[in-house]
Amino acid sequence: MPIYDACIIGAGPSGLSTALSASMKGASVVVLEEHKKVGFLDERCGGLVSERCLRNLKLSLKGEYILNRVSEAVVQSPSGLLLKIELGGTCLVLNKVMFEEALASRALNNNAEIYTGVKVKKLNFYKSHVEVETTDGTFKSEIAVDASGALSIFTPIVLGLKPSLRRPIPSAQAEVKIKGLNEDEVHVFLGRYIAPGFFGWIIPLNSNKARIGLACEHGNPVLFLKNLLKKLNVKEVYSIIKWPIITGGPLPKTFESRFLSVGDAAGQSKPTTGGGIFTGTLCGLIAGMAIAEKTEGLVNAPRFYEKTWRRLLEHEFKMQLLYRRIFRKLDDETLDYAISLLNGIGWRGLEDFDYHSRTIEDSLRNVNVIKNIFRKPNLCLLTAIILKTIGSLLVHSALE
Ligand SMILES: Cc1cc2nc3c(=O)[nH]c(=O)nc-3n(C[C@H](O)[C@H](O)[C@H](O)COP(=O)(O)OP(=O)(O)OC[C@H]3O[C@@H](n4cnc5c(N)ncnc54)[C@H](O)[C@@H]3O)c2cc1C
Q1: Whose CA is nearest to atom 41 of ligand 1?
Q2: N or C end of the chain: smaller count of CB under 10 Å?
Q3: ipTM here
Q4: What is the pLDDT of residues 127-144, one digit of tens each?
Q5: Given the DSSP bridges, would you call strands 185-189 and 66-76 parallel, antiparallel or unpaired?
Q6: Whose CA is nearest to atom 6 of ligand 1?
Q7: CA dihedral defined by 6, 148, 93, 235, rounded to 10 degrees?
C-alpha cells in the first residue's frame, strides 16, 4: 500500500477541489467517499453560486452542470411587502451531481485516485504518517484532510472542538413543479411563520421547475416547508430532503500537524446564507496547494493553509457573522420596516454575491443612498429599526 501525500475524506466540492489543486501540482492524493458514487444527492443543495466560483476552479461557464442563470431576487417581508434586488452579478444554478462529477473527472485526469463506497471510520496519527481506517481497509498518507461536510466527526475529535461551534441549523428543500416562474429571479421569504431565524427560498431551475427550501432556528423545517409549498400552491413535489446548513463561521482552528479541515467540516460556509460551495472550494484549492508544498518539504504547510484562507476570507466571515447575529434577532415588524426602508432609499441590492460586506461598505460610501436615508419617512423608519434592534439585542443578551 503506497503512502499518499494526502488522504481526503469526502468527495463533495471541498474535498474534490482539494484533490484537484494538490494533484495538479503533482501531489499523490486519494479521495474516499462513503456513497456509491460521487455527487450522490443533487437535491441536498440549492446549487446557487457565483460565476467567480467556477472561474476559481477553472471550470467552463458553459458546462452541462449549469441548469439556469439568475441575476435578481425578490425579497418578501413577513407582511408581504416586496423588494426587488440585484444579486451582485449573474449567478449560476448548478446540478451539484454533474458539477462534482466534472471536478472529479479533472482530478482523475491529474492522477488523483477516488474510491467510492468507502467510509472512513477512524484516523490514527503517527510521527511519520496518518493511518486512515475505512470500511475497505487502511490507507496511509502524510496528511489527512477532513472534507466530510456539515456532520463531520473527525474535525471536532482531532482539533478538540465542539461540533456546535459550526452552528448547524436544520434546513429542508424540495424539487417541485411550479407554474409562472420568472426563470431569472430567485425568491426570498422572511418571517417567523415562514422560517424563524432564517429565510425561505425559491431557486428556479427553469420556468416550471424549482428548488424550494428554508432553514429555521426553531421547529421542524419539513413542516415549515410544507406550509410554504401550500402557500405557493405547489401541487407536484418530486422529493424533500432535510439536512443541516452551517452558519457559525469558520472554526477557531482548522489544522494540526498532519491534519487539515476544509469546507463545511471547518465551518467555512457563509454565515448569512449557509452557502458553502464558493468558500469551501476556495479553501479546498488552498488546502491542495498546502499539500503540494508539504510534498516539496514545507514543514509548516498546514499552518500555510490556515494563514492563507484566513487572509482571503476571515474579514468577510467576521462581517457576515455580525450581520447574521443582528438578523436573527429582528422581529417581523422590524423586518417589515427594513424592507420599507430599503425600498424607500432605492437600494439596488448586493454588490457582490460572495462578499456581502462589500455591499454595506459601498452603500455607506454612496452619496445618493446617504441623502435618501435622511429624507423624513426613511429617517423615521431607520430610527425605528435601530431602536427596535438595540432593544431586542439587549433583551436577548439579558436572556442568554
Ligand atoms: C438545503 C441546502 C441548500 C443549499 N444551497 C446552497 C446553495 O445554493 N449554494 C451554496 O453555495 N451552498 C448551498 N448549500 C451548502 C452546500 O451544500 C455546502 O456548503 C457544500 O456542499 C459543502 O461542501 P463540502 O464538500 O464541504 O461538504 P459536502 O458537500 O457535504 O460533502 C461531504 C462529502 O463527504 C462524504 N462523507 C461524509 N462522511 C464520510 C466518511 N466518514 N467517509 C467517507 N465520506 C464521507 C459525504 O458523503 C459527502 O459526499 C446548501 C445546503 C443545504 C443543506
Answers
A1: 120
A2: C
A3: 0.99
A4: 999 999 999 999 999 999
A5: parallel
A6: 46
A7: 160
